[in-house]
Write a structure and sequence with these properties.
single chain; 503 residues; alpha+beta; D-Maltodextrin-Binding Protein, domain 2; Dipeptide-binding Protein, domain 1; Dipeptide-binding Protein, domain 3; 3 domains; eleven-stranded mixed sheet; four-stranded antiparallel sheet
Length: 503
C-alpha cells in the first residue's frame, strides 16, 4: 500500500526537470502578494450558504461574526459582547466603530438583516435549522441587538458565528452576492475566477492570493519552485517528506480535529441495510489506512467530536477490524467473494482521496464487495452528495465546535437543503434526543444526552467514523508568523509576513 519514499523522490525529481514547461499558471500572480495554494476552490463567498471547508475558512477572513470560539470550545465575543437578560432573551452590544470595508457603519440593522435572511424559508440557507430557536430580533439602538428565543438555551450565543453582511448587499442580491463586503481583517479586492481570489489585509494592505491547484504533485512543485508560499492540508505523507528535503521549504504537521467519515445513502435499498453497513465497518482496516496513508498523522474516531470535547464521548467502543465477521454478515445477505455485492463509491478527483478510496476498494473486495469508484471535480461531487446521488461517499467535517451539528447533520428535518443530513438518516429516537437536549437548561445533563446520541449513531452507522486528521503545513522559509490551530482555519494569515530572506 505504501509507495517507497525513494520512488517518490526519483519520480518528482524527473517532473521537476520538466516542470518549467507546464508550471506557468502562477505567472500572472500579483507582485508582492503571499500566494496560498488551495486543493479546491471555495464554493461560495456568501456566509449564508457556505458549508464546505475552503469557503468557510476564507469567509472568516472577510466577514466578522458576533461570536467566535476559544480553544476550549467555549463561545467568546467577536463583533459583539452579550448579556443574558432572561432565560430566553439575550442582548448583544456591537463593538464601537465597527465598519464594513466600503466605509459604511456596521449597525444592529445589518445584524438583523443577516439573520432574517438566513431564517427566510425562501432563501433556503443550510444554516436556518441552527437558528430556528430565534423568535424575534429587535434593535433598541444602532449598536444593540436583542434576540428573543422560543425556549431557554444556555448555548445560544454559539450559533451566531455567521458573518454579518450589509443590509444593502442582501437587498441587492437576496440569494447570492457578487462582491463580498464584510468587516473582517481582509477585504476581497480581486475575484478573477473560481480558482483565483485576492484578499487585502486591512491593517497593512498586504495581499493574499488564493490559487487553486488541484493536483497535489503540482502544488508540491509550485511551492518548491517558489510559485506558492503556503500550502495547508491535502498533501500525501510522501510529498510532505519530499518537500521537507527541498531548500527554502519548511514542512510539518499540527494536531487537528477534522473528522473524516464514510457516509451511506440510507434511502438506497442496499446501503440502507444496517447489517450491510455493519459488515463494511468491520471490513475497513482504519488502522492500516491511518498508518500508511497518513504516515500515522491521524487518530481513529468513534464519534463526530473528539473525546476531549465537552460534548464528546470518551468511552465509545472502537469499531473492530474483523474481516471474518464481515464475510459472515455478507454471507447471510447472500453475498461473498465468489458472488460479490456491487456498490458505488463517490469521491472527489483529489489524488490523495482517490488513493484512500482505492485502498478501501481493495479491503472490501477481500470480503465480497466490489466497489465501483466514481471520482468527480469538487463542485460536481459535492452537489451529488447534497442531492443524495450516491450509495457511499467520504467527506470531512471541519472546525466543529457546537453540538448543534447533531440537528444539522442527523435530524430527520435536516435533509438538504434544510440541513446536512445527506444520508437521509431517519431515527425517531435520535430526533427525540436532539430535541430533548435542546430544551435542557443544565449543561451537564445536556452533555449526557449528546453522549447518548453518539452511542445511537455508532449503533446505527449512518456514518462510519474514520479518523481525526492532523493538518499539514508547508511554507517557504521567507514566510513568517503563519501557523494553524486544531480546526485548521486560515486565521494565521492575519499575522503572516514575508521576511527579507533572499530566495
Amino acid at each position: 500500500m505504501k509507495i517507497a519514499t525513494g520512488q517518490i523522490r526519483a519520480w518528482l525529481t524527473i517532473i521537476v526537470l520538466v516542470g518549467v514547461v507546464f508550471s506557468t499558471a502562477c505567472s500572472d500572480t500579483r507582485s508582492g502578494a503571499i500566494r496560498f495554494g488551495l486543493a479546491s476552490e471555495p464554493a461560495t463567498l456568501d456566509p449564508r450558504f457556505a458549508t464546505d471547508a475552503t469557503s468557510y475558512r476564507i469567509i472568516r477572513l472577510i466577514f466578522e461574526a458576533l461570536v467566535d470560539f476559544d480553544e476550549n470550545y467555549q463561545a467568546v465575543p467577536s463583533l459583539a459582547r452579550w448579556e443574558q437578560l432572561s432565560p430566553v432573551k439575550y442582548r448583544f452590544y456591537l463593538n464601537q466603530g465597527a465598519t464594513f470595508h466600503n466605509g459604511q457603519d456596521l449597525t444592529s440593522d445589518d445584524v438583523i438583516a443577516t439573520y432574517e435572511s438566513i431564517l427566510d424559508p425562501a432563501i433556503v440557507s443550510p444554516h436556518r435549522s441552527s437558528l430556528e430557536n430565534i423568535v424575534s430580533m429587535t434593535a433598541p439602538s444602532r449598536d444593540i441587538v436583542d434576540f428573543e428565543l422560543r425556549q431557554a438555551d444556555p448555548l445560544f450565543p454559539g450559533p451566531l458565528v455567521i458573518g454579518i453582511m450589509p443590509r444593502a448587499s442582501i437587498e441587492a442580491s437576496p440569494t447570492s452576492i457578487d462582491v463580498p463586503i464584510g468587516s473582517g481583517p481582509f477585504s476581497a479586492i480581486d475575484v478573477v475566477s473560481a480558482s483565483r481570489l485576492v484578499l487585502r489585509r486591512i491593517a497593512d494592505q498586504q495581499e493574499i492570493e488564493f490559487l487553486t491547484v488541484k493536483d497535489p504533485t503540482v502544488r508540491a512543485l509550485k511551492i518548491a519552485h517558489g510559485e506558492l508560499d503556503i500550502i495547508q492540508g491535502s498533501m500525501t505523507p510522501e510529498l510532505v517528506e519530499w518537500l521537507a528535503g527541498r531548500d527554502g521549504v519548511q514542512s510539518n504537521y499540527r494536531a487537528g480535529t477534522t473528522f473524516t467519515y464514510l457516509g451511506f445513502n440510507l434511502g438506497d435499498p442496499m446501503t440502507g441495510n444496517s447489517d450491510l453497513r455493519r459488515a463494511i465497518s468491520h471490513a475497513v482496516d482504519r488502522t492500516s489506512l491511518t498508518r500508511f496513508m497518513f504516515g500515522g498523522h491521524a487518530r481513529l474516531a468513534s464519534a463526530i467530536f473528539t473525546p476531549e470535547h465537552w460534548a464528546g464521548h470518551d468511552h465509545l467502543p472502537a469499531l473492530a477490524y474483523d474481516p471474518q465477521r464481515a464475510r459472515t454478515i455478507l454471507s447471510q445477505l447472500g453475498y461473498g467473494v465468489d458472488n460479490p455485492l456491487r456498490l458505488s463509491y463517490k469521491t472527489s478527483s483529489d489524488h490523495f482521496r482517490l488513493r484512500i478510496a482505492t485502498a478501501i476498494q481493495d479491503q472490501l473486495a477481500q470480503v465480497g464487495i466490489k466497489l465501483d469508484i466514481q471520482s468527480y471535480d469538487w463542485g460536481t461531487f459535492y452537489a451529488d452528495v447534497k442531492a443524495g446521488r450516491f450509495q457511499l461517499y467520504s467527506l470531512s467535517w471541519v472546525g466543529l465546535k457546537q453540538p448543534d451539528i447533531f440537528r444539522y447533520a442527523f435530524h430527520s428535518e435536516s435533509i438538504p437543503p434544510a440541513g446536512a443530513n445527506r444520508g437521509r438518516y431517519m431515527s425517531p429516537k435520535v430526533d427525540e434526543l436532539i430535541e430533548r437536549a435542546e430544551t435542557e437548561t443544565k449543561l451537564a445533563v445536556r452533555a449526557t444526552i449528546y453522549r447518548q446520541i453518539q452511542q445511537h449513531l455508532l449503533n446505527d452507522l449512518p456514518y462510519i467514523p474514520m479518523w481525526f486528521e492532523d493538518t499539514t503545513l508547508i511554507y517557504r522559509h521567507s514566510i513568517v508568523g503563519y501557523d494553524t490551530v486544531l480546526d485548521g482555519h486560515y486565521d494565521g494569515l492575519i499575522n503572516v509576513s514575508r521576511s527579507a530572506i533572499d530566495e
